[in-house]
Design brief:
Length: about 90
């Protein structure tokens, strides 16, 4: 696993598990982002809270549309196409 990267956001660390392709996209307001995710507790068992693949379809958000967890925009706009990353976020 790569070393944790800091995203200049307090309480957020990123580890790239699989590098993406190309340059970092220019995510402008109105960009649609489609992605799969897993949310896990930071306990010893890494208990699964949510998994979009178990639900059967990916999540969609529009950049700049005030998504209920605004940290997701920060996380997603730090990623390249097809990148797989793990993020550690302090509780909000």
């Amino acid at each position: 696993m790569d070393a944790a990267l800091l995203l200049n956001v307090e309480g957020v660390k990123k580890t790239i598990l699989h590098g993406g392709t190309g340059e970092l996209p220019n995510f402008i307001t109105g960009s649609r982002v489609i992605f799969h995710f897993r949310t896990m507790k930071c306990d010893a068992e890494r208990t699964m809270i949510d998994d979009s693949k178990q639900v059967g379809y990916p999540m969609h958000i529009i950049i700049g549309n005030m998504f209920k967890l605004e940290v997701w925009e920060i996380l997603l706009t730090s990623m390249r196409v097809h990148e797989v990353a793990e993020f550690w976020c302090d509780s909000i």
